[in-house]
Amino acid sequence: MPHESRGAQxxxxxxxxxxxxxxxxxxxxxxxxxxxxxxxRAATFKVVIVVGPAGSSTANYRSSANLLAAQAAxxxxxxxxxxxxxxxxxxxxxxxRDANVLIYLGHGNGWPSPYPPFSAAQKDGxxxxxxxxxxxxxxxxxxxxxxxxxxxxxxxxxxxxxxxxASGDSEWGAANPSRAVAIERVDNYGAGFLRSGAxxxxxxxxxxxxYVLRGLFAGPASMTLGRLFRxxxxxxxxxxxxxxxxxTAGTAALLDPYAPNRYYRSVIGWLSTTVGDWRSG
Length: 281
Description:
Largest sheet: 8 strands, mixed
Distance between the termini: 37 Å
Number of domains: 1
Helix content: 25-40%
Order of helices and strands: HHEHEHEEEHEHEHHEEEH
Shape: globular
Structural class: alpha/beta
Radius of gyration: 17 Å
Oligomer: single chain
Strand order of the largest sheet: 2-1-3-6-7-10-9-8
């Protein structure tokens, strides 16, 4: 199974770390200070944040999750946290029912990968605790066939943060993927979540996802989810790759590599869905 002892990418990207830290702080700060649209305040939205066991990186993931939780709460959302060492499948599945936003930070186990064969029970889902209180090291993967049954709210948004494979990337220390492999990974990783009721699956391997929350709660109602992806302050813009999903009919996807074969940002789903559609549930 995948080994990601240094976190999502383990980032051998020392020069990026200081920049990313400042971006995270800025995004969360801006999100907390944003003027919340009256439409977003008119109803209670459920935001579920899950932190899976990620070894020595788990404490850092919990800290990042807490920042996102505070941001969502600042918009008036009902925030539910399910963190390692007690992030078991049963607890996550119960919490995620009817969630408008599901955020996951933890290990990823995608496909294609160096760990054949493909298994819908283990690939392209969540890495969670095998049992309550099982610590921050042992990981059991609940794949596409599990997350497809989560029963998210209509027009829900899923956000996958700091994990391998979901945005098309590889594990730390592994060779960078080809464009074709990155596209296949994004297509596969989104499939189960899209069947669960999500309209889009955002993935960010090394940058903050606070911009997604800010757009959903405080952005213009007419903004599409595709435009929201492009609004990320860390977007490269010129390098964006688009493709039509094959695993899920009618979907489209965008990848935004920050350098050749470095696929750390993606979104897949029905990207013409608007922020207003999301707010309507």
